[in-house]
């Protein structure tokens, strides 16, 4: 379950290292690291004292990373609450307000939510729900054999994303919905040894902890994930192939959930001072490492001519999705909820004030004070101190003497909503919409050429398209990791069963990353659906009106049909028979025969 398998992206060596020395035989030194790869849980390589020492150092690093992310996590929480339309007072969620009166407005305008829906609707059709999300790309000179190989890779990878990884589409759709709010999400791509399948799990921005002082996420030497497992899951890890170093009887009887820290860090398990990357599972209750797995493989170990280990690189299983880069050069992405959080707070505050002032103005006629005559009091005043009043009713106040009804009633003066405040809110709303591009709509003018409309449309969609390109780049990295894992953990029987062809093929050879890559089917540079349709329409218009046969008219029609996502294109516009005569020539020949 935690056996993360090789990636080719490399990671710098850590700035903080842990040392755990153990005795081992000198003659086994050269192959020690490689010998740990096939052993599964290697926590027994640590004795009790070494385990405790390593645990305390790892948890110390974990606490430091949590502190370094504290300021950013506050911004993240505000962005999530803006997306959820949850009102906040400082860092506390509020369900009701008592100022300026009980039941005051908590309304919030859904700018972040609207922008999230807009972005998801642009990207999800091709990055999630398309029948063919990815395809194989073969490097080198093109040939029929390579084309057939690319088709096989495409067929299997799309089956894998839709069937073998059943949660991939749902989690990718969730990622594209959440990303515009906080601006950062993660995918962890690894080989699940328990299920014998490649997996790619979604993690939100607050679920993975690392040192925020690092230049970027991949340079962070230590990464941590907070995990919570049920009692049944923990018992399964103890009894199953994971062989967790825990005793079932020591689990607290009255607890059903147990907290763990999954740490990707660096340790030295031998006398060599060079550290190696490992995945450590630490139980918070027992304060010890219960499982330890190598976070490297044979390909990431570099040796010199004397067979000495020179460097060890990690298996980069994490893919960071970023919406906008941080202008400060920080490692986290920025979303609309973080970037425009203060502006959205001001807009929401203005809306609430306008609603509250309207409520007060509507109830002003029924709110105020009414004099209540009394003859038992002495002096000039009959009541001292504050008077409790309630909105929507006249509060009796004892006074001395009698007066007319008009003089006995004092109504509260409320001026109603402020026009200047309303104009200010409209100004902020307009600026917020222009940046988030939520619900952007570029209308075509009557009689406007398709090429001119396309140019205006592309100009209006430059900002969302640039963001889309960034997300496509991250998705391509994730798909590349999946392709490499398919090469490392090939299953020819399953591969050929999915292909269902007469010949048998090698999955290891087809997915060889040396000359094969897994890439996205759709081209993000082509923009949205409406852009593709207008581009194809402009080419088709030119092909129809060209004075000379320069543009292939049939190909222009086919591209237009593809952009319109027309089904059964091959049947609708079949390949012409090269031996068949041109219909126009046949008509001319028939006319000549009739005249003769």
Q: Could you walk me through the main structural features you see in this protein, from its secondary elements to its overall organization?
A:
With 596 residues, this protein is an alpha+beta fold. α3 packs across α4, α4 runs antiparallel to α6 and α16 packs antiparallel against α17.
Quick gist of this model?
Helices cover 40% and strands 16% of the residues. The chain is of the alpha+beta class. Strand 4 (184-192) and strand 5 form a beta hairpin.
Which SSEs are present, and which pair or pack?
Elements: H1 32-35, H2 48-68, H3 70-84, E1 88-89, E2 92-93, H4 111-127, E3 134-138, H5 144-164, H6 168-178, E4 184-192, E5 197-204, E6 208-210, E7 223-230, H7 231-239, E8 257-267, E9 276-283, E10 288-294, E11 301-303, E12 309-312, E13 318-322, H8 336-339, H9 341-362, E14 368-374, E15 394-400, H10 405-408, E16 409-411, H11 419-436, H12 450-460, H13 462-488, H14 492-499, H15 507-510, E17 516-520, H16 529-545, H17 553-563, H18 569-572, H19 583-595
Parallel strand pairs: 14-15
Antiparallel strand pairs: 1-2, 3-17, 4-5, 4-13, 6-7, 7-8, 8-9, 9-10, 11-12, 14-16
Helix pairs in contact: 3-4, 4-6, 4-13, 9-11, 12-16, 16-17
